[in-house]
Amino acid sequence: MIRRMFEAGIELKKKYGAENVYDFSLGNPDLPPPPAVKEALRAIAETADRPFAFGYMPNAGYPSTRQALAQLISREQDTPVPADNVVVTVGAAGGLNAFFRAVLTPGDEVLVPSPYFVEYGFYCGNFGGKLVPVPTRPEDFSLDLEAIRAAITPKTRAIIINTPNNPTGQIYPAEDLRALAAILEEASARNGRTVFLVSDEPYRALNYENEPIPSIFRACRDAVVIGSFSKTLSLPGERIGYIAVNPAIEGAADLVAGLIFTNRTLGSVNAPAIGQKIIEAACASHVDVDVYHRRRDRLCAILEAAGISFFRPKGAFYIFAKSPVEDESVFVQALLEEHILVVPGGGFGMGGHVRLAFCVEDSVIESSAPAFRRTMARFR
After folding, report:
1. Measured between alpha carbons, how far is 129 from 162 in angstroms, rounded to an integer?
2. Count of CB atoms within 10 A of residue 40's CB?
3. What are the two backbone dihedrals, phi and then psi, of residue 213, each rounded to the nearest 5 degrees?
């Protein structure tokens, strides 16, 4: 649905002009990469005439890149993470696929708080797993810990969380993560095998409330963190990410070895050489988060003025708004008639809502206000 709405936007822009279309469909970061990326590319170009400048490297990534990532992850997780526990991957998506290939047996279940990024279901299904959505608390999309506890079965192999969250912008607090870890630890003991906590963190740097993003490794022993630089460095097309394994996991070295194997045999062999060299130099940098913060505040004000209910996102660059009618497709169509493109909430496992991505130019947000008001007037 995300791609379908994005492609519909292209046609609308051809017909009515880009300035008359308000496309909030695709989470494609529009900010330029930070200066460190440009500097890294210049340095890479200076070495391009050397033998093996872009040749094969160890399947887990350049040792120097793994070391740079280990230093970054150690700071973020407030836990010493050795470079040997980091595998460089083809984006976070490649990391998730490598992880599920390494740990899933056909028939295994992976829990996910709903709403969620719909591709998770395909990543699990690629290896015979089944994604099991678990509702979050409706007032703020926070974790419903008792619902998670009730959803665990002997087939449960992992739970995947995404914080800051796509599509809601929620950030899960440390106390909820500790309680979740205790639930998973009990389930692991009861089932006789590890139930992993998988934290998907591509939006980690996009935090607007100055709330700390809690350390997954300090909250949970049997945890892996998967991230990318698509959003923080505006490099979605470069496809560069990582998996980090908590050193406290029993048999961590075996898990890392399995991840290196699956990372290779899934067909990518290794992460892109240029991308690795970029993040080695620039992984501690990030785009100008204040721009996204400003856009969030302005779009929230426009939606509020139009009478649209929504949860104010704490991070990422999405607003998950409530449809004024139960069938959100009716609302989506009404918005489309006003040249506003959003994504139906059913595409994220929760109907009755729509997602708006505010990684768009300020002019798009400002110009959309009358169209939102006209749309909502229909439903009054």
Report:
1. 19
2. 21
3. -80, 115
Please give the Cα distance from 76 to 73 (Å, whole number).
5
The letter for the amino acid at 130 is: K
**CA 25, CA 3: separation in Å to the nearest integer?**
8
| Nearest partner of 275 among 12, 32, 33, 9, judged by Cα | 33
CA 104/CA 102 separation, integer angstroms: 6
Q: What is the mean pLDDT of residues 182-192?
A: 97
| Cα torsion angle, 373, 295, 298, 344, sign | positive
Peptide bond into 212 cis (omega under 30): no
Query: CA 364 → CA 19, 78, 152, 302, distances in Å?
Result: 7, 39, 44, 12
Q: Using an 8 Å Cβ cutoff, are 37 and 285 in contact?
A: yes
pLDDT on residue 1: 66
The answer to whether 308 and 376 are in contact (CB under 8 A) is: yes
Give the DSSP letter of residue 207: B
Other C-beta atoms closer than 10 Å to the C-beta of 126 total 14
DSSP 278: H
Contact 28, 236 (CB under 8 A): yes
User: pTM (2 decimals)?
Assistant: 0.94
Give SS3 for 194.
coil
DSSP 65-103: HHHHHHHHHHHHHTS---GGGEEEESHHHHHHHHHHHHH
Cβ atoms of 371 and 340 within 8 Å: the answer is yes
pLDDT digits (tens, 9 = 90+) for 292-319: 999 999 999 999 999 999 999 999 999 9
- Give the span between the Cα atoms of 42 and 274, in whole angstroms: 11
Mean of pLDDT over the chain: 95
